[in-house]
Amino acid sequence: MATRGASQKSPASPERTPPTRFGEDNLLWAAWLYYEEGLTQAEIAERMGVSRPSINAYLADARTRGIVSIEIEPDRFRALTLTQAMQDHFGLSDCFVIPSDGHDRPLIDRLGAAAAQVLARMTKSGDTIAVTWGRTMLAMANSVEAGALTDVRVIQATGGTTAKIPWTPEACTSRLAENLGARCIPLSAPAIVSAPEMRDLLLREPVLAEQMEALSEADRIVLGISSLRPESTIHTSGFFDGISIRDHYHSAVGSIAGRMIAANGARVDGPLERRTIGMDLDMIRNVPERMAVAGGMDKVQAILAALRGGYVTALVTDADTARAVLTSEGYEDRPRRRSDATPATLPERTRVKKFLNRPRDAVDEAIAGALLAHENLLAPIEGAPRAIRALHGPRKGKVGVVIGGGSGHEPGFLGYVGRGLADAVAVGNIFASPPPDPILAATLAADGGAGVLHIFGNFSGDLMNFEMAAEMAKDRGVAVRTVVTTDDIASAPVDTRSARRGVAGNVFVFKVAGAASDRMLPLDQCAELTLRAAERCFTMGVALEPGVSVDTGVPSFRMGPDEMEIGVGVHGEPGIMRSSVKSADETADLIVDRILNEMNPSDGAEVALLVNSLGSTPQLELYILNRRLRQRLRARGVTVHMTLLGHCYTSLDMAGVSITLMQLDAELKSLLGHPCESPAWTVANV
Amino acid sequence: MPCFTRSDLTTLFHAFAARMADERTFLGELDGEIGDADHGVAMANGFDAAAQALLRAEGSGQGLAGGFNLAAQELLNAVGATTGPLYASALTRAGEVFGEVASVPLARLPELVIAICEGVERRGQGKPGDKTMLDAWGPAAHVAARGLNASVGPVVLLREAAQAAAKGAEDTRAMMAARGRAARLGPRSIGHLDPGAVSAAALMDVLAEWARHHEEIA
């Protein structure tokens, strides 16, 4: 622990005196050092000047009194820890970490404002400050306020760029100089010239030579860090015009002052270097104080590269970015101990017994058993062991409905094959999309001459394989339309619905498609209704225990004994956040709040409700959740038209639940009520 | 002059399959952190299926393109998922590059790396920095292309490419996933290695080691 630097600011010896923000509360202090700083009990005992057994007692007391569970993590404290970790790890003299959550103010503006404060405090009369360009630099320049300084020079670190962007080197330099009350020294040349000879010629011009000389005298440089990701503004600066990044800068991950750096911070040379006018990386490293201002998840790799390369002595960033940079270096922000050490809890699930023969035969053996269990409903498709058709589904003139996906979701997907539901299914390995061949076989088996509708959840594997199968089907003269479901609201923000996973809402979507096709509607209309159903479904899942891999017998992800994963995916993908386990009502509230928030139903709206076990959660708990869901929906003026409750769309034996609401209209209601008969869902003909 | 023949393709795929079987658990653990934990199983089973099919088809007069296409088809059908189409596309591309010939000079083997990269790119539409297998295949292919132009020997060149792939895989730790299942994690994907890039680097390592051994015994 490098506490010496910080100790200069506190009057008393830091080893013996609790920080004032904890007052006299030794419990709180001990808990903070243990859970947030990750110190051992012995280290804490030494730090606080008490015996180790006392620390043990403090911690136990802190837990029983609920001090630990009240989350000692206001951003301030975390930022404090992050700052220290950044300084220690990268040898920074200073690091300023602002909170990542800035409400409505853009991160770049807030970083600029923070950097402006730091810069104003650091700058002394007579200083020469070099500055690069970019959005963050301009934001900083805009918010700097002058102190009573004299003889300060602000100097442009690179030549000029295209004027099509507002944050040109000229703009950043002149604005900063103006607001600091400093003299402005431009660099009177373009940043990139057409040929090395031109650069050499220009550098011999006395005006430019004098400016470059001033640059070499800089006491301090303030620099932005650019990523080279497609969304980076460096691509609009004109820097790369006529240059293939792929050919010349493939190993570059970031850019400082227009110079390219690799992931380890090394310089990346290409055709631009000898045509660039301005500070190069060696010159930058020779400046005594080098303050970088950068944040954002897209910049993590570039910031890390800049830190590794030693181009930065001080960094202004935000907490999420700092945490991500440190995580990339193997630093654990939250010691696992936080949950592991909690006493008197259940042991973590480590190995689970299974009814299996050879694990790799599991899917084929399950298919064989399913075909026998449902022999009055399902039939194999010849030559395609991983494709199954409905015995009474496909018929001439009817649109074929083909579904599919990985195994492990039983009764998804083959449970939804039957008259009035899907006509055929392609079955993949566990949690893996089926390959194109069985999808094609299912498509041909379902085809009644009126075209085939493919329906599957939005996963990159399913997209690729179904797309390949659709192309193959089209080559054989079968018209295919595709509906990709995206109901998992926890998997991406509302404005990028197309990025969301398709999960348990599939059950309702399959039903609507099956009913529409059973009514002999044409392909376009079936697709349109199915799409409408898909868009009206909103699902969110919560996991209590991971599912267990059939292959290895061990859980597919780790979960602390007292944790739950909110927003979990149907393959155990991490969701929105980990939290402590909540009661049934709290869990139902949490899910229904998010769903209603997106769905925004009008008073009197009607929905279909799916209360789904993700595998090992028993029906008893589903009923408890359902009770609360109905209370909440009634209070909101929402009527539940129909309910499905049970193991409808699982994730092996994961403990957890997913809730789906589908907003109904008269047509969708009628289609949901249409008769069907399949292994998992039968609606009687009344 | 040492050659790369159709039966060499079989031994190479057996080496791939053996390595993927060794890495199976580790890859599954990596995938469990940011995905669905099936990458180890998919790679092991996929390459095993391809290797066995190549062995069965030996002596049938099949050339290199036929072998690569067979491997592609077997791998695709054994795996599905994302891994299947991506490596199937990679191997199909390799078949196009080498053509239906009985053998090529060993010096051309680095072209396989470039072909795999092109095939993966064509199917997956990914970009460098997306935190995918392309972040390993991309740097390896670049090294291979540069070395072929400079007439570097295949054994040295493939080892350099393997090092580039390993480094590329390590660099995925700091990347935020932009494609595949992990993309939905956004910032939470940072700090984890991409399992697809790690398995790609392992395959690249096998290829380099196979070439070294092959030249030694030739």
From TrEMBL, chain A:
Pfam families: Dak1, Sigma70_r4_2, Sugar-bind. Residues 1-22 are annotated as: Disordered. Keywords: Kinase, Transferase. One of its GO terms (molecular function) is kinase activity. Residues 1-11 have a biased composition (Polar residues). Residues 358-681 form the DhaK domain. Residues 36-58 form the HTH cro/C1-type domain. It comes from the Bacteria. InterPro entries: Cro/C1-type_HTH, DhaK_dom, Dihydroxyacetone_Kinase, NagB/RpiA_transferase-like, RNA_pol_sigma70_r4_t2, Sugar-bd_dom_put, WH-like_DNA-bd_sf. Gene3D superfamilies: 3.40.50.1360, Dihydroxyacetone kinase, domain 1, Dihydroxyacetone kinase, domain 2, Winged helix-like DNA-binding domain superfamily/Winged helix DNA-binding domain. PANTHER family: TRIOKINASE/FMN CYCLASE, TRIOKINASE_FMN CYCLASE. This is Bifunctional sugar-binding transcriptional regulator/dihydroxyacetone kinase subunit DhaK. The lineage of its organism: Bacteria, Pseudomonadati, Pseudomonadota, Alphaproteobacteria, Rhodobacterales.
UniProtKB/TrEMBL annotation, chain B:
The keyword Nucleus does not apply. The keyword Metal-binding does not apply. Transmembrane segments: none annotated. One of its GO terms (molecular function) is kinase activity. Keywords: Kinase, Transferase. It comes from the Bacteria. Residues 7-209 form the DhaL domain. InterPro entries: DhaK_L_YcgS, DhaL_dom, DhaL_dom_sf, Dihydroxyacetone_Kinase. This is Dihydroxyacetone kinase subunit DhaL. It comes from Paracoccus onchidii. The lineage of its organism: Bacteria, Pseudomonadati, Pseudomonadota, Alphaproteobacteria, Rhodobacterales. The gene is dhaL.
